[in-house]
Specification:
Elements lengths: L2 H25 L3 H35 L2
Helix pairs in contact: 1-2
């Protein structure tokens, strides 16, 4: 499998885990922990996506530097 497909599955798995934890904590009355779980999940997802975006920008920059 390619790196892009692997990243998509990792993000999907993270989203499933975070949504289950959020629902469980919200129903248990722990709203602050539920929202903290969302923020941590978002931060982890961004840490996984940012290198791919930087690689995209580097590719575009190198493409336009040739001409």
């Amino acid at each position: 499998m390619g790196e892009g497909v692997n990243l998509i599955f990792r993000i999907a798995g993270l989203a499933i885990v975070v949504s289950i934890l959020f629902t469980f904590l919200k129903q248990a009355g722990r709203d602050e922990y539920a929202y903290m779980t969302l923020l941590v999940g978002l931060a982890i997802g961004l840490l996984w996506v940012i290198p791919v975006i930087l690689e995209l920008f580097e590719t575009v920059r190198s493409l336009f530097q040739l001409y």
